[in-house]
User: Fold these one by one.
Assistant:
Number 1:
Amino acid sequence: MLVSNRAVREVLGIEPGQVSNRFLGDAGWEVLQGDGSPWPDADWPIHQAVRTGVPVTDVRMGLRRGAVTRWLKVAARPLRRPGDDKPYAALATFTDVTERLAAQVALQESEAHFRLLAENSTDVITRHLADGTCLYASPALRDMLGREPQELEGQQATEFVHVEDRARLISALVALLRSGEVSTVRYRMAHRDGRWVWVETVMRPVRAEGRVLELQSSTRDVTARMESEQRLARLALGDPLTGLANRAALLQHLEDLLDAGQPLALLFLDLDRFKVVNDSLGHSAGDELLRTVAGRLAGTCRDGDVVARLGGDEFVVVAAGLAEEGAVQLAERVQTVLGAPVEVSGHELVVSASVGIVVHDGGATDERDAEALLRDADVSMYRAKAKGRARAVVWSEATGQAPVERLTVEQELRSALECGEITVHYQPQVELSSGRVVGVEALARWTHPRRGLLAPASFLDVADDTGLIVELGRQVLHTAARQVAQWRGLPGCEELALSVNLSSRELLDPGQLEVALDVLRETGLPAGALTLEVLESVLLDAEGAVLRALASYVEHGVRLALDDFGTGSSSLLHLRRVPVASVKIDRAFVLGLGRDRQDEAIVRALCSLTGDLGMSCIAEGVEEDEQRDWLVAQGVLVAQGYLLHRPLPAAALEALLRADVPRAVRG
Ligand code: C2E
Ligand code: MG
Ligand code: MG
């Protein structure tokens, strides 16, 4: 006779209380031994314990009823009455281990399955305890990290992981343990040879009885994928203003070409006088211009060339497979395309660019990387700027040795303005009929402590871009006005006129007019003796502000001349807009006089047009007798040029004025 408790009812469906010896069979349960064979009643642990008097522990017993099998762990302890050696009964406890066994079996099965996969996978398969300790790593580790699996086994999961990535890996582990779901994480691991390998790990927990027993993970090398993803991301991050590639994309492209050993040419462009547009027409006009330039550049290049904007008005073209000759031709093409007038918020502008060119033959002898190429092209571009606008300079060792660094020029120029290193040279304006000097053009010179006497080409752009031009112009005006006022005291020089050059930047400076009037008052030079030379392109830049500034000078009696006339486009249309006294025909047209029919036709037309408008004509850059003769025959009265006089320092000019030698007439 047996007594059972309540748990027996729950597990086996048998009412507690007294049950018969055959209670299991009565309830329909067939009793099995651990190996699954039937278990005769007499051998049951409880009967064994009573019969032998020895406790039975940890015996596995199966109960089967229909399709259901439950496994129990059984322990039986014999019970004795005092003084009686023979047990009268036994106390048996049954623990249901069905779930646990199932999990163990599953684990064994999955382990076998797992090993099979692991040993043959190109991914690195690992097993970890929940605390991160590595139990197993598959042989693919050798290919991925150049390491033996034993190096990892027994170590923490973060071993060999990049310090910056450890926190990420650990929090992924924690999240995985908490949620119990598959999770993926990317991090870097150290290869035996010292490089970092980007890997991606997929981890999944293996659970039993609601507990995470271990983690299984599969890890693969994603370095190549990461790199191409990063490259795509960079390329996608183009320049938002123009849609061209940005600096990062450009560098990537350059590196790719260099890696592939491809020859290439790189053109570094900086727009000339872009600041003027931005300052006088406003930023949205500036942006519009940049977009137009971007479109023109892209349209000029071949498929496969990459055009980028580095920021501001700096553009770069990378042309694969192009050698120096082709690169120079491309630069010329670009210049032509950019030179067509641009309509920007109602204004017609003319754009040019200074271009630095670098060529790389793709060979191993040239070890410059992408950054170095860009830097060399930048240096060449500044060289081009220093030579005057709209030029191109090809990089060579010589270019690189003495880089004209803009920042240096700016700093030096600033101190030059403070230390009085800016001086003025004067080029005579000569009356052709008599050879008399009727006026002088003041031209800025910089007596540089190291580089010697510098012409405006090597510092004017920096001065213009930085605004230092305003101070420079004031110094030039002041020096020249005082000088000319003094020279007007010389016999025969009472009417000597002064021309000074003014950039649009200076014209737009609000204090400039007052300063000029002060200078006139202070030096006693009459306003009518002063001519401001402005580039005709200044008239295109802004009809508002610049024209108003010019008009106010004229109201005070100052005269205006249009400098370098004929070089800007659509200038003729704008001539009527300003009260201009004279135009200076550019050297480019004077060059062909006496030889070139077309140049002659242009100058003839300019002379008659300006004559009709009541302006006078001055010829610039007269270098040869034929040119002078042609001009005289055409009725041009005044000219400047090396044939007549070069620009001279004040002392030399004074000597000339005193000697009063009419050179042009005597030839
Ligand atoms: P620009 O006003 O057209 O001045 C004439 C330039 O032509 C001068 O160059 C002069 O030296 C040069 N030149 C004169 N005759 C001949 C000739 O027969 N043959 C040749 N090949 N060249 C000749 P420079 O002094 O180098 O000045 C260059 C430009 O710099 C000037 O061109 C002017 O636009 C600008 N500049 C000069 N000084 C100042 C200044 O104080 N302020 C401003 N804003 N600009 C200035
Ligand atoms: Mg001039
Ligand atoms: Mg000129």
Number 2:
Amino acid sequence: MIKISPSIMCADLSYLADEIKSLEAAGADYFHIDVMDGIFVPNFSLGLHDLQAVKKMSRIETEVHLMISQPQDYIQLFADAGADIIYVHPEACTHLHRTLMKIKLCGKKVGVALNPGTSISVIEEVMDIIDYVLVMSVDPGFAGQTFIPGAIDKIARLSEGISLGTRDIKISVDGAISLSTIPPLYEAGARIFVAGTSGLFRDDVDYSTAIENMKNCHQ
Ligand code: DX5
Ligand code: ZN
């Protein structure tokens, strides 16, 4: 079953409460919170206060996508602010295993985000800790980029590897998600789709219709 995770940085932040309420009513399954530090990626986005605000307004699970250097120093802060799933990028961590254990010990779901240029082999030794893998189908840092099709084959290989193990690791995908990119990604094994400017936050889009269409577009 397809789950949709609206990318809150793409919402109208001047009406955040209305946006959260509408997205929840429209069938959002998660809220995706993009955090950038201007170093790991050349941009800034949401932060701790935005996460706290979203948590205050909704009970939907939040997935916090940390596009920041040395994320191990900030795990506790985001855990305390209400993150349910925390994703880190392996390239940003000096000690990936230690960072993932920190997320786990905070009682949060452990996530790893893989850039388009990053091989799935970097998570081979930590698969026993991971709960979610976020496959990037654009280079992280900006909304509205072009879909990188290599994500499809990467998800198929990842999915095959996961099926050989005993743990239920979920595959999420982030970047240029729309009615045209969901079907091949779903077919490959992705189940959670981060919806940003490509598929959801567009002028004149009705959130309920857009989310329903995305959830049904793979048949
Ligand atoms: C990219 C962000 C995404 C982005 C995706 O760095 O992580 O969450 O908002 O939305 P699109 O690609 O549809 O604008
Ligand atoms: Zn993201």
